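Exam revision sheet. Question 4 asks you to relate a sequence to its structure. Input first:
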Amino acid sequence: MRTNDVVRFSPLGTVVLTLASLISAAGFLWPFFYNGQSLPRTQLFFWAALIVAFFLVIIQISNSALDAKSVALLGVLSALIAALRPLGAGAVGIEPMWFILILSARVFGPSFGFILGLTSMFVSALLTGGVGPWLGYQAFAAAWIGMAAGMLGGKKLRGWREISLLILFGIIAAQVFGILMDLQFWPWALGADTQLSYLANGAISENLTRFITFHFATAMAWDIPRAVFTAVLLMLSGKAVLSALRRTKTRAAFLEPIEFNERVKA
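Answer key, C-alpha cells:
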C-alpha cells in the first residue's frame, strides 16, 4: 500500500482483504451471471465476507500493523461517522457521514479508509438497530469508497485544487453507493412481471439494461441529494478538517514505537 497509509498490510492481510473483496463483489454482481431458477440467499456472501474482513482487522492488530494509536483513531472516527449517519434519517439522500470518511481516507490512506468504512457502517447499524441482510452490502460499499478515496492521486495538491478533486470524488462516490445499494435490492423489488424486473437466466445485456433503467427511474431522488449534500460539506469544511487530520497524523506518529523518557520511567 502507499507510504502515507497508517495501516500496513502484511502479505497475509493482503490475501485476506482480496478474498473478502472478491466474495463481496460476487454478492453484488451475481444477477448478471446467475443461471439458476430461484433467487439465491446472497446475504450469505456478505456475512462470509464480513467475517473474513473482521478477521483481517484482528490479523492487523496482532501483527502490530494496526498499532494502539491507529486503533484509537479508528474508534473515534468510526463513532463520529456512526453518530453523523442517523442525522439525515427521514430526509431523502441527506447522509452527512460521507465527507468524514472521504477526508479521513485521504489523509490516512486506502487501507485505513477500507477498515474505517467497514467498521463505521457496522457501528452505525448497532446504534440505530439497522442490523439486517442489507448490512453487508452497506459495509462493503462504504469500505470500497474509503479505499478509493485513499488511493486518489494528487497527494501534493493543497487548497481549493485538492478540495475540488475531493468534491468530484464525493459526487461520483454518492452515485456509486446508490448503484451498489440498488444492485442488492433490484432482483427482489418488482416481482417477475414488469419490464424492469430481473430475469432469471436472462442475458447479461438484457438484465443490465433493465437494471440501469430501474436505477435511473427510482434512485435519482436519493443519489442526487446525497451527491449535492456531500459536495457542499466538503466545500464548506474540507480545508479545516483536512488540516486537523493532518496535524493529528503528524503529532501521533502512527506506527512509530512509543518511547518513554527517563522521567516517565521513574
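Marking note for examiners. Residues 11-265 form a domain with the Arp2/3 complex 21 kDa subunit ARPC3 fold (CATH 1.10.1760.20).
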